[in-house]
Predict the 3D structure of the following.
Amino acid sequence: MAKIRYVDHLGQETELEVKPGTSVMQAAVNNGLAGIVGECGGSAMCATCHVYLNEEDMDKFPPISAPEQEMLECTTSPLKPTSRLGCQLVVAEGMELTVYLPETQQ
């Protein structure tokens, strides 16, 4: 299993244990977690699963692809160096990470 700790813009934390191969977006949506919408269902076409990673977690995932970068430029919350789309962050066995949710997705 993997552990994802979600921290909303008010500092409220929710920790989920998820199966390897699950995306940060899928885990949030499947568990009814507010703050991630995932309108496009995970195809990197809407930017409603924008999250901020901890810097130390950045190297746990492949670099941002061109399509992901293009979608990140459409987010409603400020773009940061640690911005990623949750649908593109797939967890592996034993992975632990923290993601911060922006104030708004739309």
In short: The chain has one domain: 2-100. Residues 2-100 form a domain with the Ubiquitin-like (UB roll) fold (CATH 3.10.20.30).
